[in-house]
Amino acid sequence: MSGAALIKPALNAISGVNSTTELEALRVEYLGKKGVFTEQLKTLGTLPPEERKTRGQELNEAKQQVSNAIDARAETLKLAEINKRLETEWVDVTLSPRAKAQGVVHPISKVMDEITAALAQQGFAVAHGPEIEDDYHNFTALNFPENHPARQMHDTFFLQGNGDNKTLLRTHTSPVQIRTMQAGKPPFRIIAPGKTFRCDSDITHTPMFHQVEGLYIDKNVNMGHLKGCIEDFLRAFFEIDNVPVRFRPSFFPFTEPSAEVDIGCSREKDEIKIGAGKDWLEVMGCGMVHPNVLKNCNIDPNEWQGFAFGMGVERLAMLKYGIPDLRTFFESDIRWLKHYGFTSGDAA
């Protein structure tokens, strides 16, 4: 059979199919290993040489036309299928959006980010250290005397099998300051956020809690710089420009002089309102870094001075967001978290 005789029925069949499945069947019928054109090409060997050449050329040209017609029909059918899907599979953009994701940001994470952001505006970088510390970095290097109550079992979680230099769960993030100063050279301007551990549990204390401590070491640093830093931070954190701040003399082994920091507030019934008022509320401790601490870090206290401060994250969260009980932070109550938590947009 000549190529011209094969083309017409093939093209008619191709133009008549309405699905890619039917088209594939035609492709196999005409172009497959046992297809019409393959069988016709097998007969060329029985023909005289001149006729074989002419017939072979006709069959190959006809085969190519059929192949091109199949490809063109495949594109047409594919486009038709896409258009059909577009007509049936569509989205009504006027519908209400999806419900908000159920996950929320914990108040501790939110406040840690707020503290970090407020102090970053003053140039403080974040530093981290181990939660399992040794006695030297947690106490000795920070100028704690041997008989200090904090070094006793009733206040600190000591670990067994420690040898001469006991290991423990750090009681504050101050060891991060020691490790930072020992690892580098002044000046330093860092904050150390993280978990801390103490043997205590009541409405205002938990065995594990979070702190952020700050350290600034440079030349010619004085108490005025400390006061300015703390005042700017508290006003930025509580978002109150005129919040009153006062410093009361206190004692910490690692600072001298030392001070407790209070902010102004008013108390009406069971509600505390931050800002101008007749009452004061303690929020953090601070002081000038003790010369002994600088010496323990191989820093000359006659050349370098600085200040340090520390605050409890949960306490600031309670004050800013009206959370009444510290212990609820760690009870994993999803109802509490939905009430006090923040969406990703609120936490940004």
Can you put this structure into words, describing what you see?
It contains twelve helices and ten strands. The strands form two sheets. Strands 1, 4, 5, 6, 7, 8, 9 and 10 form an eight-stranded mixed beta sheet that branches. It has helices spanning 3-16, 20-31, 36-42, 49-88, 107-120, 135-138, 174-183, 223-238, 291-296, 313-321, 334-340, 344-347; strands at 125-126, 132-134, 167-169, 188-197, 208-218, 245-252, 255-268, 271-274, 279-289, 305-312. The model has no long low-confidence stretch (mean pLDDT 86). The protein folds into two domains: 3-88; 107-347, Bira Bifunctional Protein, Domain 2 (BirA Bifunctional Protein, domain 2), CATH 3.30.930. Helix 2 (20-31) packs antiparallel against helix 4. The two termini are 77 Å apart.
CATH architecture descriptor of the largest domain: 2-Layer Sandwich
Instruction: Give the helix tally.
Output: 12
- Roughly what percent helix? 40-55%
Q: Which regions contain 5 or more consecutive residues with pLDDT less than 50?
A: none
Report Rg.
39 Å
- State the oligomer: single chain
Q: What number of domains?
A: 2
CATH class (first level) name of the largest domain: Alpha Beta
User: pLDDT average, as an integer?
Assistant: 86
Which overall shape is indicated by the principal axes computed on the Cα atoms? elongated
Strand and helix layout:
Elements: H1 3-16, H2 20-31, H3 36-42, H4 49-88, H5 107-120, E1 125-126, E2 132-134, H6 135-138, E3 167-169, H7 174-183, E4 188-197, E5 208-218, H8 223-238, E6 245-252, E7 255-268, E8 271-274, E9 279-289, H9 291-296, E10 305-312, H10 313-321, H11 334-340, H12 344-347
Parallel strand pairs: 1-4
Antiparallel strand pairs: 2-3, 4-5, 5-10, 6-7, 7-8, 7-9, 9-10
Helix pairs in contact: 1-4, 2-4, 5-10
